[in-house]
Amino acid sequence: MKTYTKFALLVVAIIATLGWLAASGINETKTYYKEIKEVRAMGQKAQDGRLRVGGDVVPGSIVREGKEVRFTIHQEDLKLNVIYAGIDPLPDTFKDGSQALVDGKLRQDGIFQASKIQAKCASKYEAKPMQKPAIQQKQASL
Fold first, then answer.
1. Following CA atoms 19, 23, 29, 35 in sequence, which dihedral angle do they give, to the nearest 10 degrees?
2. Do 53 and 110 lie in a common domain?
3. Do 71 and 57 touch, CB atoms closer than 8 A?
4. Rounded distance between C-alpha atoms, residue 55 and residue 26, angstroms
5. Based on the domain organization, do 36 and 7 belong to the same domain?
């Protein structure tokens, strides 16, 4: 075999291996945002892989026990109990009534075991009221 042929085969093998690793990594890490009703409708399939579920934190449900945090999120009239024992600190915006996005797995007992939590407080992210440009303010006063 010629040197160029061997080199081409090696390059093709390396590219194929990198493509396979990338594709399998994407399939392993992809999670879609689900609503609580969708998680319930999935049944046993909800326990098979990672999920990302969103909802509002129920006021008064946050309980801290050492490194573990338990709370409940809700959407409409559906609730989901969550346990977080991750190594990352909770976001500053994580509090009663905030919107939370939990990433993890649903256990067999129906409790969601979160490995990551994202939270935002709706009032913190509201847009500032727009002011009229100076030219429009001058025209309005004339």
1. 150
2. yes
3. yes
4. 25
5. no
Task: Please state the domain count of the chain.
Answer: 2
37, 95, 111, 122 from 63: Cα distances, Å:
24, 11, 15, 22
Mean pLDDT for all residues in the chain: 82
Rounded to whole angstroms, the Cα distance separating 14 from 12 reads 5
What is the tens place of the pLDDT at every residue in 29-83? Answer: 555 678 889 888 888 888 888 889 999 999 999 999 888 999 999 998 899 999 9
Q: Which of 9, 74, 81 is nearest to 37 (CA)?
A: 74
The Cα 76–Cα 53 span in angstroms is 14
For residue 131, being part of any structural domain is answered with: no
Contact 59, 73 (CB under 8 A): no
Q: Are residues 26 and 38 in the same domain?
A: no
